[in-house]
Amino acid sequence: LAPGAAMLRGFAREDDAALLQAIETVAAQAPFRHLVTPGGYTMSVGMSNCGKLGWVSDRSGYRYDPLDPLSGQPWPAMPACFADLARRAAAQAGYEGFRPDACLINRYEPGARLSLHQDRDEKDLSAPIVSVSLGLPAVFLFGTDRRSNKPQRYRLAHGDVVVWGGSARLAYHGVAPLADGEHPLLRRRRINLTFRRAG
Ligand code: SIN
Ligand code: FE2
Fold first, then answer.
1. What stretches in the chain show pLDDT beneath 50?
2. CA-to-CA distance for 14 and 78, rounded, in angstroms?
3. Residues 171 and 149 sit within 8 Å (Cβ to Cβ)
4. Helix (H/G/I), strand (E/B), else coil: 84
5. pTM higher than 0.90
6. What is the pLDDT of residue 124?
7. Strand (E) or helix (H) holding 65
8. d(CA 73, CA 67)
9. Cα-based angle 8, 14, 20 (whole degrees, multiple of 5)
């Protein structure tokens, strides 16, 4: 992808059943919801979180919050299979000792998209981002740290993992509108887990 970034094809495949089970458990406690951006736009991607911190957006801005604003309770704990997968993927990409404290869970339905952005709300930018794709395939846009550089397009399929850190840590990235389809495990959905060291 770029220096500091790696594409690990199929890395999460053999864990898919355990991951999906854990996602259900998290979502039972912290349901997917469509957040509103500071500009007042409702995001097409449904979001939840687990771990010590969760990424949230509302009219006042973006932030990491230890509490789920829907319930006022802490986010569900990060399942062991999540943290373990993220640590192994980071190590495979050259980032030893990654210990995520936040996992954003994104749910895409046909047409949902994520516009080009940087992940820059994390306190410590020395840790990489680990992104796990499940379900329907998506087109991932991955550029440089300048928005004006046209991003490359990559197809992300079930089980693919992308890691970016180092000189790629502030790369602009996004997801093109999800094409409809039918996935054997996730039907008409894509789920993405992004692991961060946020606090
Ligand atoms: C993200 O940038 O938070 C998610 C990327 C993806 O869904 O692949
Ligand atoms: Fe992101």
1. none
2. 19
3. no
4. helix
5. yes
6. 87
7. strand 61-65
8. 5
9. 100
